[in-house]
Amino acid sequence: MTGTSGRGRPPRRGATLLAAAGATRAAYEALRRRPPGGPARWERTNHAGRTVTLHAGPAAALGTALAAASAPGLPVRARAAAALAVLAAGGCGGYDDVAGAGDPRRGFRAHLSALRHGEVTSGTVKLFGIGAAGLAAGTLLKDRPAERVLAGVVIAGSAHLVNLLDVRPGRAAGAALVLAAPGLLRRGPAGPLSAVPLGAAAALVADDLGERTMLGDAGAHALGAALGLAVVAGNGRAGLAAHAAGLVAAAAAGDRISRLAGAL
User: How far apart are CA 243 and CA 249, in angstroms?
Assistant: First the structure.
């Protein structure tokens, strides 16, 4: 690594972070001004009985995907993987926000049980859609079959983990900030890819904490998928296996993690 490229890394990450924050904020403000289908379609009642909007979710997905796809210094395959995984995660999450709004079932077991009885729930669509997108993104980022599978687990598992934390204002966005920040120190594509969810979450966290908006499944899954991509870009097989094991364990303990996040 030459001195010139070493000096170039921080500005690239800073520019990517600012681009993610700017694109996310611009999308959020555009949705606020002209919400497609009218304001009522985007309104939800939060845990405290307050009316909030879902604008932050699509804004996070769009801003994150755009910043990742245009980040300077990233290989073409990394850009494509990021755009694919983030948009698919955000899209599947957004579908669940709309189609699954009145469905009380939560967790893998409930949705897989419904599938065994012939019912395809919005949660099932989300589960398989994000899983397939994670595997496809892993295939773009890794060359060996085992690493591709592990990468898919990490990307989909990270998306699910952040969504588990989205139980109170600021929890999911705050988690994205905390989990993404250390990745800025990583070399190679992991640095810029970590800057993307960090910038997007930073652009929305104040409105989320202020209970003016919520990330919903769309935003939480999109930010989580972006975090997973950064992990995949910065790890080989051993690191991927360790992260995958931790994320599978977190998914198995999903209810407890959500309760803990809500109590904090």
Answer: 10
Percent of the chain with pLDDT over 70: 88
Label residue 259 by pLDDT band (50, 70, 90): confident
Residue 175: what residue type?
A
Q: Enter the tokens of residue 126.
A: 């989300």
DSSP string, the chain: --HHHHHHHHHHHHHHHHHHHHHHHHHHHHHHHS-TT-GGGGEEE-TTS-EEESTHHHHHHHHHHHHHHH-TT--HHHHHHHHHHHHHHHHHHHHHHHHTTT----SHHHHHHHHHTT---HHHHHHHHHHHHHHHHHHHH-SSHHHHHHHHHHHHHHHHHHHHTTTSTTHHHHHHHHHHGGGGG--TTHHHHHHHHHHHHHHHHHHHHTTSB--HHHHHHHHHHHHHHHHHHT--HHHHHHHHHHHHHHHHTHHHHHHHHHH-
Nearest to 74, CA basis, from 200, 230, 193, 194: 193
Rounded-to-integer distance, Cα 151 and Cα 103, Å? 30
Q: Which residues sit opposite 43 in a β-bridge?
A: 53
Distances (CA, A) of 1 to 9, 76, 143, 187, 234: 11, 20, 23, 10, 16
User: Which pLDDT score, from 0 to 100, does residue 4 have?
Assistant: 37
CB 44 within 8 A of CB 53: yes
